[in-house]
From TrEMBL:
Belongs to the Thz kinase family. This is Hydroxyethylthiazole kinase. Keywords: ATP-binding, Kinase, Magnesium, Metal-binding, Nucleotide-binding, Thiamine biosynthesis, Transferase. It comes from Bifidobacterium oedipodis. One of its GO terms (biological process) is thiamine biosynthetic process.
């Protein structure tokens, strides 16, 4: 844990840490399968990260293949980073069929807000939504906006200033967004309270994680309200019923300080390494590993466990590497070597 951090919110309780440790260990012990429909750029890192965290991987793009595999997979993952024309029909169909089968899935809405096709696909998921959404701040804001979700007005300024990470994504430290013509192809993401409007910058975020809190909460509530009863029951039976009376969906927002919410409680996860932004697929592979954990745990625990594992592994990799190439290799090794206890004893701050 970093000693220079300033926290104004409380530490997570022991019960949630126990469940995180159990999830990490269960993956190492049972090697669950998570199926992925993911982009061509980072597909190899996604599979390798899933294996290194203890799971197994299967990549597929054909709806009938995916539905057959979903019947034997513990969870599924859809990432819209690279698109082909047939995806516009295939992905809404897959989401609908996963819903009918009550199969849990993770969505990474890569580059949400860019392009008519991506927007049409992401909009189609509104009525057959995933169990977890994992994205960077701009993607979370854009997705909530395109689903027309109301912003939650809760004031989270008491979350404190967390300095657990080196560097960070923010609007000033990143290149300017791609020049976007002002057409309906691009969904501007706006922060009404701040009076600002931003646009997605390709696959990178132009927003701070905190700016995405209201959108993340609204998304998590929407996902939870659509969770099939049978799926909620499955998550309940995997946990102590007293501690998880009503399992909810979860949203994970990544950045310099990650954030996870189930729509009721907001968790902040400091730590990690700015070098994660220097390899392609850090976020995509985090989505894939989140799906691995979703195969053995409820959405909140899965999102927390995966993000905490990534932070601890990134810190080790930064220490052991000399640039992006060796960082990626060291990061995969660290995913393999970090223990359940290390993940569960991570800094984990609760606000609400
Ligand atoms: N500045 C940073 N400091 C520490 N960790 C970071 C930083 N930027 C990204 N990460 C980590 O990299 C992983 C991917 O996050 P991010 O880069 O936001 O996703 P994406 O690649 O989808 O934009 C997460 O584990 C996140 O914690
Ligand atoms: C570069 C790129 N282009 C389309 S998808 C993709 C990978 C994005 O990976 P990540 O979101 O994990 O950085
Ligand atoms: Mg991404």
């Amino acid at each position: 844990m970093s000693s220079d951090s300033v926290y104004s919110c409380s530490d997570a309780d022991g019960a949630i840490r126990t469940r995180i440790a159990e999830a990490v260990q269960a993956v190492k012990d049972t090697t669950p399968l998570a199926q992925s429909f993911t982009n061509f750029v980072t597909i190899n890192l996604v599979a390798n990260a899933q294996l290194a965290s203890g799971g197994t991987a299967a990549m597929s793009f054909l709806p009938d293949d995916i539905i057959d595999t979903a019947k034997i997979a513990g969870a599924n993952y859809i990432n819209v980073g690279t698109l082909l024309p047939f995806y516009k029909d295939a992905l809404p169909d897959i989401a609908q069929r996963l819903a009918y089968l009550k199969k849990p899935w993770v969505l990474d809405p890569v580059a949400a807000g860019i392009g008519k096709t991506r927007t049409a696909i992401l909009k189609s998921f509104r009525d057959y939504p995933p169990t977890i959404v994992r994205g960077n701040a701009s993607e979370i804001i854009a997705l909530a906006d395109m689903w027309g979700l109301p912003r939650n007005s809760t004031d989270f300024t008491n979350l404190g200033d967390v300095h657990g990470k080196v560097g960070g994504h923010n609007a000033t430290s990143l290149p300017q967004p791609h020049a976007a013509s002002d057409t309906s192809d691009n969904i501007p993401t706006s922060d009404a309270s701040a009076g600002t409007t931003t646009r997605p910058a390709g696959v990178e975020s132009v927003d701070d994680v905190d700016a995405a809190i209201p959108s993340a909460i609204a998304l998590a509530k929407h996902l939870s309200s659509h969770m099939p009863a049978a799926m909620a029951q499955r998550f309940s039976s995997e946990n102590d019923a007293a501690s998880v009376p009503c399992p909810r969906a979860a949203v994970a927002v990544s950045g310099a300080v990650d954030l996870v919410t189930d729509g009721e409680t907001v968790y902040r996860l400091p730590g990690g390494s700015a070098m994660m932004a220097k390899i392609t697929g850090a976020g995509c592979s985090l989505g894939g590993v989140t799906a691995v954990y979703l195969a053995v745990a409820d959405p909140l625990i899965a999102a927390l466990a995966a993000s905490l594992l990534y932070d601890r592994a990134a810190e080790i990799a930064e220490h052991e590497s000399h640039g992006p190439g060796s960082f990626q290799v060291a990061f995969l090794d660290a995913l393999w070597n970090v223990t359940a206890e290390q993940v569960a004893s991570s800094p984990l701050l609760v606000a609400s």
